[in-house]
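Query structure, 128 tokens:
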């Protein structure tokens, strides 16, 4: 959709000039695919001080839904993206989401769904 990415240069999560350990810590915080339970409070502390939340969340909705954008998890952003796809203007969706964050309605506690293993058909054979 061609959203301007100039906001990224002044985002709080920008790691230019940071050491490798700090870059890895920020990457784990914002791309938590390996974590079973996500710590939304850490995002809120980190993103809450950022002046670029509106363009960041807009970017997450329109451009890249993986990871954390504007302090919201990708599952929440996916839901917001469906609202935009249904015709709600993106600025309305973003403002509504950030107001809900301020009222402590978002982010919700997110747990990764456990995968259920499909039963495997076995041929019963006695041990001899």
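Result returned for the query:
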């Amino acid at each position: 959709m061609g959203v301007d990415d100039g906001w990224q240069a002044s985002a709080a999560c920008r790691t230019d000039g940071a050491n490798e350990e700090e870059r890895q810590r920020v990457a784990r915080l914002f791309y938590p695919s390996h974590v079973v339970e996500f710590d939304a409070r850490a995002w809120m502390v980190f993103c809450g001080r950022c002046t670029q939340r509106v363009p960041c969340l807009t970017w997450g909705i329109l451009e890249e839904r993986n990871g954390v954008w504007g302090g919201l998890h990708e599952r929440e952003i996916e839901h917001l993206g469906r609202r935009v796809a249904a015709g709600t203007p993106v600025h309305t969706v973003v403002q509504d989401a950030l107001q809900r964050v301020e009222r402590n309605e978002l982010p919700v506690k997110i747990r990764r769904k456990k995968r259920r293993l499909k039963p495997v058909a076995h041929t019963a054979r006695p041990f001899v």
